[in-house]
Write a sequence for this structure.
């Protein structure tokens, strides 16, 4: 299944979470998805993004150690269904939204619980989601910079073809 579709399924499942344990399980699912998307982009994404994508995969992996969830089996891990990332920008943007929603849901659970263990589990999961979201933001900034540079190169090529060249002092006609 394509990454953006998996993210949509995860957002829907998070929104339907009825209790604290379901929210924790969905936070875990989101981290597993961040790990899978990071790994996919590191192996098959744009070359200049592979290092940061690898870091996203590692950050996602740190946040998705097997949760203490009754009934969650390895086959239930949505990230295992990932077949590819067709649109890196769209996928990363959607993943950032999912991770933000996970953070908000975890804050609500942490504020609502009297159980110290559950509270700290939420805090650790929020930290992991935040780290993954930071990595997503870094990759998106790198993508934007790459696109701006490509646009500048296209403009320079058009200018050269039309007889204009840019120097530090401004345009000159040759």
């Amino acid at each position: 299944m394509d990454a953006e579709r998996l993210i949509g399924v995860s957002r829907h499942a998070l929104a339907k979470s009825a209790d604290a344990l379901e929210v924790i399980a969905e936070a875990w699912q989101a981290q597993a998805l961040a790990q899978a998307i990071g790994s996919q982009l590191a192996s098959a994404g744009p070359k200049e993004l592979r290092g940061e994508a690898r870091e996203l995969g590692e950050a996602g992996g740190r946040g998705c150690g097997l949760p203490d969830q009754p009934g969650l089996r390895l086959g239930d891990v949505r990230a295992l269904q990932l077949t590819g990332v067709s649109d890196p920008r769209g996928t990363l943007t959607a993943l950032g939204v999912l991770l933000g929603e996970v953070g908000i849901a975890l804050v609500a659970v942490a504020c609502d619980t009297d159980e110290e263990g559950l509270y700290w589990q939420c805090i650790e999961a929020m930290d992991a989601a935040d780290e993954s979201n930071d990595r997503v933001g870094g990759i998106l900034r790198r993508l934007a910079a790459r696109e701006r540079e490509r646009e500048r190169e296209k403009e320079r090529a058009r200018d050269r073809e039309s007889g204009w060249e840019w120097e530090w002092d401004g345009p000159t006609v040759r």
User: Anything to note?
Assistant: The longest helix spans residues 116-162. The chain has a mean pLDDT of 88. The CA atoms of residues 79 and 114 lie 31 Å apart.
